[in-house]
Known about the structure:
Blueprint: H1 9-20, H2 26-38, H3 43-66, E1 71-72, E2 75-76, H4 78-104, H5 108-132, H6 139-165, H7 169-193, H8 207-210, H9 216-223, H10 227-239, H11 244-257, H12 259-278, H13 285-299
Amino acid sequence: MASMKSSVPLLDMVTKYILKRKGKQMRPMFVFLSAGLHGQICESTYTAASMIELLHTATLVHDDIVDDSNLRRGFFSINALWKNKIAVLVGDYLLSKGLLVSLEKDEFRLLKIVSNAVREMSEGELLQIEKARRLDIQEDIYFEIIRKKTASLIASCCATGAASATKDLEIQEKMWQFGELAGIAFQIKDDLFDYDRNSSTGKPVATDIREQKMTLPLIYLLNHSNLSGKRHIIGTVKNHHHDHKRVAELISLVESSGGLKYAHEKMIEYRSRALEILNGFPENEYRKALNDLVAYTTEREK
C-alpha cells in the first residue's frame, strides 16, 4: 500500500512484513459495498478504504502490545520481533498516515467519521481494562465495551463508504447503525470461538479466559450462579486462569448453564437488527453482497 511508504528503512521493513500477512480484508469490503449500495465507487471510496485499513492495522499493532501477545494470525507480532518501543511508534505512524490520507484529499467528512471511531475504540479498550480489575461485569458494560472496541470500526467502514457516494447525512447515520449492529454480532461470534474444540487436542481454545477477559457466555454463567458459585468463577479467571483443570471445569459450567446458546441467540438478534436496517434500502447487487458479508461474519468457522 503506497500510503504506508516511508523514507525510514526500518519503518519500510516493518510495514512490508505487515503487508505480507494481511487478513481477509473484510473491512475494506464493507467500505466498497456500502459505497456501491448508495451510488458510485469513486476515488473518495478508495480514500475511505485506505484510511480504514491503516487505522485497523495500527490498532492491531497496539492491541498486541496491550495484550502482550507474541503472535498474530500464526505469525510473530511486531512487538515480538522489534520490541514494544518500535511497535508503539509503528502503530502511531500508521494511525497518523491514516488520518493524513483524508487531509491530503480534503475529505473532511471521512476524517470526522474515522476520528470518531478512533476515540470510541480507545475508550472501549480503557473501559475493558478498568472493568477487568473486578471481573464481575454486567452484560450492559460488556456490550458497551464491544460496541466501542470492535463495532465502531465496522460502523465507520459502512459510514465512510456511504459518505464517499452520497452527501445524505441520514443515510450515513443509518449505515453507521447498520455497521455497529453487525460489528457487535461479529464480536459475539469471536467470543464463541473461545469455546470451540482445538482440532489437535480436542480441548476448547480458552484464550479469553487465560487473558482474563469476561465474554458473553461467561457473563451469562456468572449472572445465573449463586454467591459461592460467582466467587469460584471469578477466582478461576483471576487467579487460576492457567490451571487447565480449573479452566476446563469452568468451560463445562458455561456449556451446561446455557451460556453458549444464549450468546448465539444474542448474536442472531444483533445480526437481524443490522439486516433490518440494510434491507430498508433499495435492492441491488451491493445490498445482497452486504447481506452475504454479514452472514459470513457470523457463520464463519474461524
